[in-house]
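Researcher: Please translate sequence to structure tokens.
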Amino acid sequence: MRILGLLEDQVASPSELAQKLHAPLGNVSYHVRILASLNLIRLVSETPRRGSVEHYYTAVAIPVISDEAWSNVPDIVKNAMIAAALEQIGATINAAAVAGGFSRPEIHLSRTALELDEEGWREIADETRRWMERVAQIGHDAADRLADAREIGDHATMVTMVFESPRHEDEEAVDHDVAHRRADAAHRRSNAA
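Model: Translation complete:
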């Protein structure tokens, strides 16, 4: 996941990736070969270097894991994938903040704490899937317009996360609101009876 994240926006060789990841070249080269065999990255150039050839790769596609496939992934693998993704997201967000990437008026950043039942989880998953498809279409349309105009657009990153979270002290107000709504609903039910 970390190699895919690095190759998403750039071309790099296994030795460059090993330096960025602070990992042994042999390990990185092994994983690069696996990713290439799965057609997730592709070779874009070769450069002679000190009696050998350095290979440069870029990402072909970031894998999309279905809900069903994700439910079958062992927890240890899920945790490693999530940790790698969060590391990349954090680095991207920090670099954007330093570069002034949050100065446009269209920028959006929010955090919403919810209390969900099983139906609520399904509804959020379905709605997220729908609007992410729309986001992808907007990106394709913008790329087509830029290509037609022979222009270069602004690079944008969108991060979407929905996850089960532990309760924190800063969420006491949400908990209080939920308890208050539950009490009101119970009161209405008893009055209706």
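Researcher: Any highlights?
Model: The radius of gyration is 22 Å.
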